[in-house]
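Chain A, query sequence.
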Amino acid sequence: MTSGGASVSTTETKKVTVSMSEELLVFADRMAESFGKTRSGFIASLLSEARERELERLAAEGYRYFSAEASEFAAASESAVAEVMDDDYR
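Chain A, predicted structure.
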């Protein structure tokens, strides 16, 4: 199931108690109503979206790391590849 582009798990849910200021509670209720959700559903969708953003950030970080590593390997092996290629085409 998706909500605003973020996937929301349909697995077993757990009841939790969360403390927050009355101001945040009023805001959460107003926003939940404007999106046609329950308070719990609204908060869960915000957390799901935050999780998706974090996973995307981690994936991008991993891509940058392995991209740099692959570039370093390519640069380090360039002379060996050139030598083999040169031997094959003589």
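The two ends are 60 Å apart (CA to CA). The CA atoms of residues 6 and 51 lie 9 Å apart.
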